[in-house]
TrEMBL record:
Keyword line: Amino-acid biosynthesis, Arginine biosynthesis, Cobalt, Cytoplasm, Hydrolase, Metal-binding, Zinc
Peptidase M20 dimerisation domain span: 147-257
Organism expressing this protein natively: Poseidonocella pacifica
Gene3D superfamilies: 3.30.70.360, Zn peptidases
GO biological process, one term: L-arginine biosynthetic process
UniProt key word Metal-binding: yes
PANTHER family according to UniProt: ACETYLORNITHINE DEACETYLASE, N-ACETYL-L-CITRULLINE DEACETYLASE
Protein name: Acetylornithine deacetylase
Taxonomic lineage of the native organism: Bacteria, Pseudomonadati, Pseudomonadota, Alphaproteobacteria, Rhodobacterales
Amino acid sequence: MIEWLGSQLSDLGARTEIFHDESGHKANLFATIGPDTDGGIVLSGHSDVVPVAEQDWTSDPFEMVERDGALFGRGACDMKGFIACAMAMAPVFAARDLKRPVHFAFTYDEEVGCIGGQALVSDLKTRGIAPGIAIIGEPTGMQIIEGHKGCCEYTTHFHGLEGHGSAPDRGVNAAEYAVRYVTRLMELREEMKTRAPRGSRFDPPWTTMNIGGIHGGVAHNVIAGRAEVEWEFRPVTSEDMSYMKEEIAAYVSDTLLPAMRAVDPRADIQTETIGEVAGLEPMAANAARDLVAELTGANGVDVVPFATEAGLFQEMGMDVVVCGPGSIDQAHKADEYVTLDQMSRCLDMLEGLARRLS
Ligand SMILES: [Zn+2]
């Protein structure tokens, strides 16, 4: 699909680059129509979808079906509808003498932690490409979204030393260290409530943290040699994101590990990152918001509870909004769809963009 999109865009004269991942099986696409300058507009979409396993679909999820004024298929609203609109308008962009470039940024593996997006952003930095604005086409019903929390998920593994339950001091109890770790996380969670930005519109307004699972140990009378904690937090600011990570890492290196290793130098705590998606922080000045408001006539902006690739582009110094066709209510479900009305509103926005840039 990425190769096909790339060749379509190349045929229109776009400068097209395909960046493969290490396996060579997945790739990001970055293509530019218009002048070779900074300050362009990125149209961003992810090419992957979530699985359809155990979902009861009326029709083949991988065969698009049109009925009742809507297009049905896996990824229809999340967010292949937006990619289709961007591709449909590519000839219109190509036919105009654009004063600012339009970039097509299509990524892989967004659904599993914005893996492709992170790679794309670092490739753009390496090449010194600095667009000014990004429109992330996740389904918002074509409303302007200027903020969402980040989402950081981890599994922390505790490696202790097993022994008989009657001699706890001779072992390193991984379950007990996991409990201390969780206790520290919960202290940090309370502290986060005091750090909520003024006027935060998120619900709740602060960075949240959740313990999703604790596993470990084998029997009542055995010192637990292994334990793991599954946890996540959803930062409202990049400061909270780094603070939480630094504080828990410091507790591990300064307090937990020295205590564990005093008994057994092989004891360890390893945190595995499942996914780290930065939030999109609402900004007082946001050229993307002003532009999309002008193009769509939308006069309100909102924040949403789901995470997108937007934060990655914001970290690059770009002004960013999320705005795309369809509803997040249909995403990830059986009989996912996007209405033709939403698609035509998106096409109108992009057509307006082509006029605005030329
Ligand atoms: Zn999506």
